[in-house]
Amino acid sequence: MNKGGICFLLVAFSFLQKNYAHPYFISVTEIHISSQKKNFEVSCSMFTEDLESAIKSVYSTQIDVKKQLNATEFLDLIYKYISARLEISIDGKKQAYTLIGCENIEESTWCYLEGSCSSLNGSVSVINSLLFDFLEEQTNMVHVYWDEERQSTKLVNPNKQAEFSF
User: Fold this and answer.
1) Residue 9 in domain
2) SS3 category, 50
3) Phi and psi at residue 156, in whole multiples of 5°?
4) pLDDT 10s per residue in the chain (166 long)?
5) Looking at the domain assignment, is residue 1 inside a domain?
6) Fewer Cβ neighbours under 10 Å: the N or C end of the chain?
Protein backbone atom coordinates (compact mmCIF):
# COMPACT_ATOMS: atom_id res chain seq x y z
CA MET A 1 0.00 0.00 0.00
CA ASN A 2 1.33 3.44 -0.88
CA LYS A 3 1.74 6.44 1.45
CA GLY A 4 -1.50 8.03 0.21
CA GLY A 5 -3.50 4.92 1.02
CA ILE A 6 -2.02 4.66 4.51
CA CYS A 7 -2.73 8.36 5.21
CA PHE A 8 -6.32 7.92 4.02
CA LEU A 9 -6.85 4.92 6.32
CA LEU A 10 -5.36 6.76 9.31
CA VAL A 11 -7.57 9.81 8.73
CA ALA A 12 -10.66 7.65 8.20
CA PHE A 13 -9.91 5.60 11.33
CA SER A 14 -9.39 8.70 13.49
CA PHE A 15 -12.65 10.16 12.17
CA LEU A 16 -14.53 6.99 13.06
CA GLN A 17 -12.89 6.87 16.48
CA LYS A 18 -13.84 10.47 17.27
CA ASN A 19 -17.40 10.42 15.98
CA TYR A 20 -18.36 6.92 17.07
CA ALA A 21 -16.50 6.51 20.33
CA HIS A 22 -19.35 4.52 21.82
CA PRO A 23 -22.16 2.84 19.88
CA TYR A 24 -24.73 3.01 22.69
CA PHE A 25 -26.28 6.07 24.27
CA ILE A 26 -27.03 5.01 27.82
CA SER A 27 -27.03 6.75 31.18
CA VAL A 28 -27.54 5.14 34.56
CA THR A 29 -29.33 6.77 37.47
CA GLU A 30 -29.36 5.07 40.87
CA ILE A 31 -31.59 6.35 43.66
CA HIS A 32 -31.00 4.96 47.15
CA ILE A 33 -33.77 5.76 49.65
CA SER A 34 -33.18 5.13 53.35
CA SER A 35 -36.38 4.85 55.40
CA GLN A 36 -34.38 4.97 58.64
CA LYS A 37 -32.35 8.08 57.78
CA LYS A 38 -35.26 9.64 55.83
CA ASN A 39 -32.97 10.67 53.01
CA PHE A 40 -32.05 9.70 49.49
CA GLU A 41 -28.84 9.64 47.50
CA VAL A 42 -28.61 9.78 43.71
CA SER A 43 -25.80 8.77 41.37
CA CYS A 44 -26.03 9.66 37.69
CA SER A 45 -23.56 8.33 35.13
CA MET A 46 -23.37 9.76 31.62
CA PHE A 47 -20.79 9.43 28.88
CA THR A 48 -18.56 12.48 29.35
CA GLU A 49 -18.54 13.52 25.70
CA ASP A 50 -22.37 13.31 25.57
CA LEU A 51 -22.69 15.45 28.70
CA GLU A 52 -20.27 18.04 27.30
CA SER A 53 -22.15 18.12 23.99
CA ALA A 54 -25.52 18.44 25.71
CA ILE A 55 -24.32 21.34 27.86
CA LYS A 56 -22.93 23.05 24.77
CA SER A 57 -26.18 22.48 22.87
CA VAL A 58 -28.53 23.61 25.65
CA TYR A 59 -26.54 26.47 27.21
CA SER A 60 -24.20 27.47 24.35
CA THR A 61 -21.29 26.92 26.72
CA GLN A 62 -18.21 24.86 25.92
CA ILE A 63 -16.99 22.78 28.87
CA ASP A 64 -14.17 20.32 29.41
CA VAL A 65 -15.30 18.04 32.23
CA LYS A 66 -11.84 16.66 32.96
CA LYS A 67 -10.31 20.13 33.36
CA GLN A 68 -13.24 21.84 35.11
CA LEU A 69 -14.50 19.01 37.30
CA ASN A 70 -14.30 20.90 40.59
CA ALA A 71 -14.84 24.45 39.33
CA THR A 72 -17.85 26.18 40.91
CA GLU A 73 -19.22 27.43 37.58
CA PHE A 74 -19.00 23.93 36.15
CA LEU A 75 -20.82 22.37 39.12
CA ASP A 76 -23.51 25.07 38.94
CA LEU A 77 -24.03 24.32 35.26
CA ILE A 78 -24.18 20.56 35.84
CA TYR A 79 -26.71 21.04 38.65
CA LYS A 80 -28.79 23.33 36.43
CA TYR A 81 -28.76 20.72 33.65
CA ILE A 82 -29.61 17.76 35.89
CA SER A 83 -32.26 19.50 38.00
CA ALA A 84 -34.14 20.55 34.83
CA ARG A 85 -34.21 16.92 33.64
CA LEU A 86 -34.38 14.72 36.74
CA GLU A 87 -37.43 14.89 38.99
CA ILE A 88 -37.89 12.55 41.93
CA SER A 89 -41.19 12.34 43.79
CA ILE A 90 -41.63 10.25 46.92
CA ASP A 91 -45.18 9.55 48.04
CA GLY A 92 -46.46 12.15 45.58
CA LYS A 93 -44.18 14.96 46.80
CA LYS A 94 -41.50 16.37 44.50
CA GLN A 95 -38.15 16.17 46.28
CA ALA A 96 -35.43 18.80 46.33
CA TYR A 97 -31.82 17.71 46.14
CA THR A 98 -28.35 19.21 46.07
CA LEU A 99 -25.30 18.34 44.03
CA ILE A 100 -22.51 16.94 46.19
CA GLY A 101 -19.94 16.63 43.41
CA CYS A 102 -18.82 14.88 40.24
CA GLU A 103 -16.02 12.55 39.23
CA ASN A 104 -14.72 11.00 36.04
CA ILE A 105 -14.41 7.24 35.82
CA GLU A 106 -13.03 6.11 32.47
CA GLU A 107 -15.35 7.52 29.76
CA SER A 108 -18.14 8.49 32.16
CA THR A 109 -18.92 11.40 34.42
CA TRP A 110 -20.61 10.47 37.68
CA CYS A 111 -22.68 13.13 39.45
CA TYR A 112 -23.75 12.67 43.06
CA LEU A 113 -26.81 14.29 44.64
CA GLU A 114 -28.65 14.00 47.93
CA GLY A 115 -31.85 15.12 49.61
CA SER A 116 -34.06 14.46 52.59
CA CYS A 117 -37.68 13.31 52.70
CA SER A 118 -40.21 13.17 55.49
CA SER A 119 -42.91 10.90 54.08
CA LEU A 120 -41.85 7.34 53.25
CA ASN A 121 -44.78 5.11 52.31
CA GLY A 122 -43.17 3.27 49.38
CA SER A 123 -44.19 5.20 46.27
CA VAL A 124 -41.53 6.67 43.96
CA SER A 125 -42.03 8.51 40.68
CA VAL A 126 -39.05 9.42 38.50
CA ILE A 127 -38.94 11.70 35.48
CA ASN A 128 -35.55 11.30 33.83
CA SER A 129 -34.88 13.01 30.49
CA LEU A 130 -31.11 13.36 30.86
CA LEU A 131 -29.58 13.73 27.39
CA PHE A 132 -33.00 13.26 25.70
CA ASP A 133 -32.87 16.79 24.32
CA PHE A 134 -29.53 16.02 22.75
CA LEU A 135 -29.70 12.39 21.60
CA GLU A 136 -32.75 10.78 19.99
CA GLU A 137 -31.26 7.33 20.65
CA GLN A 138 -30.76 7.97 24.37
CA THR A 139 -31.77 5.30 26.88
CA ASN A 140 -31.77 5.97 30.62
CA MET A 141 -31.55 3.07 33.03
CA VAL A 142 -33.12 3.85 36.42
CA HIS A 143 -32.49 1.75 39.54
CA VAL A 144 -34.41 2.63 42.70
CA TYR A 145 -33.38 1.08 46.01
CA TRP A 146 -35.80 1.36 48.93
CA ASP A 147 -33.56 0.31 51.77
CA GLU A 148 -32.27 -3.02 50.36
CA GLU A 149 -35.06 -3.72 47.84
CA ARG A 150 -34.28 -2.81 44.23
CA GLN A 151 -36.50 -2.12 41.24
CA SER A 152 -35.27 -1.08 37.80
CA THR A 153 -36.58 0.16 34.50
CA LYS A 154 -35.36 1.34 31.13
CA LEU A 155 -36.56 4.69 29.77
CA VAL A 156 -36.14 5.04 26.01
CA ASN A 157 -36.44 8.52 24.51
CA PRO A 158 -39.10 10.02 24.52
CA ASN A 159 -40.52 7.91 27.42
CA LYS A 160 -39.16 9.69 30.49
CA GLN A 161 -41.38 8.66 33.43
CA ALA A 162 -41.38 5.60 35.66
CA GLU A 163 -43.37 4.61 38.75
CA PHE A 164 -42.13 2.34 41.52
CA SER A 165 -44.03 0.81 44.45
CA PHE A 166 -42.29 -0.80 47.40
Assistant:
1) no
2) helix
3) -105, 125
4) 554 443 333 333 334 444 456 678 999 999 999 999 999 999 999 999 999 999 999 999 998 988 887 789 899 999 999 999 999 999 999 999 999 999 999 999 999 999 999 888 999 999 999 999 889 999 999 999 999 999 999 999 999 999 999 9
5) no
6) N
